[in-house]
Specification:
The chain has 104 residues and is of the alpha+beta class. It has 3 helices and 7 strands, in the order E-E-E-H-E-H-H-E-E-E. It has a 5-stranded mixed beta sheet. Strand 5 and strand 6 form a beta hairpin. Helix 1 runs antiparallel to helix 3. The longest helix is centred in the middle third of the chain and has 11 residues. It is globular and about 30 Å long. 20% of the residues are buried.
């Protein structure tokens, strides 16, 4: 595009990877073998794919993630497509497996 005879670049709308922390709870913590680890990703889907790759030697990890719910900086992800959930720089992803108990 040109502006006053000068060529200008189109705005960069691609999401850029950012750094933050993934915290694992209960069965997810046991399967990961750690309570937390860093992420460097643009979306929740990217962060989880990287975590699955990092823990490829622990097959239970991928199985547990399938049952988990996620919070990004305290906000529930719910049923949103993980590739559409951007991660904030310095943010925290909470990985929450289903918990037993509660009242009947």
């Amino acid at each position: 595009m040109t502006e006053g005879g000068t060529v200008t670049a189109a705005p960069d709308t691609a999401a850029r990877p950012v750094a933050g922390t993934i915290r694992y709870w209960a069965a997810a913590k046991a399967a990961a073998g750690t309570a937390q680890e860093p992420y460097h990703a643009a979306t929740l889907a990217e962060a989880l794919a990287d975590a699955r790759e990092q823990h490829a030697g622990e097959p239970e990890f991928a199985r547990v993630l399938l049952r988990c719910s996620f919070l990004v900086d305290g906000t529930p992800v719910g049923t949103r497509d993980h590739s559409a959930v951007p991660l904030p720089d310095g943010g925290t992803v909470e990985v929450l497996p289903p918990f037993a108990g509660g009242s009947s």
